[in-house]
Amino acid sequence: MSITELKSRTCASYGFVTTHKTRWSDNDQYGHVNNSIYQHYFDTIINTYLIKYCGLNPLTSSTIGLAVATSCQYFRPLAFPQDIILGLRVNKLGRSSVVYEVAVFAAESPGDGPAAVGNFTHVFVDNKTRKPIPLGLELRSGLDRLYIGDGGLLNRGKL
Predict the structure, then answer these.
(1) So what's the pLDDT on residue 150?
(2) Could you read off the pLDDT of 50-104 as tens digits, one per residue?
(3) Phi-psi group of 55: left, alpha or beta (phi > 0 → left; psi -120 to 50 → alpha; rest → beta)
(4) Contacts 24+ apart (CB under 8 A), 149-158
(5) Are 46 and 88 contacting, i.e. CB atoms less than 8 angstroms apart?
(6) How far apart are CA 121 and CA 89, in angstroms?
(7) 8 A C-beta contact, residue 128 and residue 60
């Protein structure tokens, strides 16, 4: 995926979109959201979606997702007290893994494009053995609603 393509993402590029508030503690000494905090944002929208739409309960489910890879491209700074919009889609859906794409937009100017776009890979494992297992029907069905297929967001309703 080219930087130009990532910068051209809009909220409509994502099947699940939610708002989030930055916190004072998100800022670093340079007065903007610290790069590491974006991983918190990614984790928040992904787990919100998994809990609400995929039947996952991290404390009691027999299947859990373990993060095995993350990356992020930063395009413009954000800072407390900005509100942000998080967008989520699935770029790759495997037998036991999923690659998500998450975008972070400034809520007051989402038309300016994303402030950052990242990838986050989960491998789903048995909660006890930590061995990879195939995605269950409810989990796969929920993730499939966000799957972009061959490069373009499928024509499914927004959540």
Answers:
(1) 58
(2) 999 999 998 999 999 999 999 999 999 999 999 999 999 999 999 999 999 999 9
(3) left
(4) 153/12, 153/13, 153/14, 153/15, 153/89, 154/15, 156/15, 158/15, 158/16, 158/17
(5) yes
(6) 12
(7) no
Burial of 106 (0-12, 13-18, 19+ CB in 10 A): buried
How far, CA to CA in Å, does 111 sit from each of 8, 88, 153, 158?
10, 17, 18, 18
Virtual torsion, Cα 123, 127, 129, 131, nearest 10 deg: -10
Q: Kindly list the strands in the beta sheet with 83-93, ordered across the sheet, starting from the edge strand earlier in the chain.
A: 16-21, 83-93, 97-106, 116-126, 63-74
Tell me the CA distances in angstroms from 34 to 9, 17, 37, 116, 137, one per residue in order: 22, 22, 6, 12, 37
Going 98 to 101 to 104 to 110, the CA torsion angle's sign is: negative
pLDDT at 38: 97
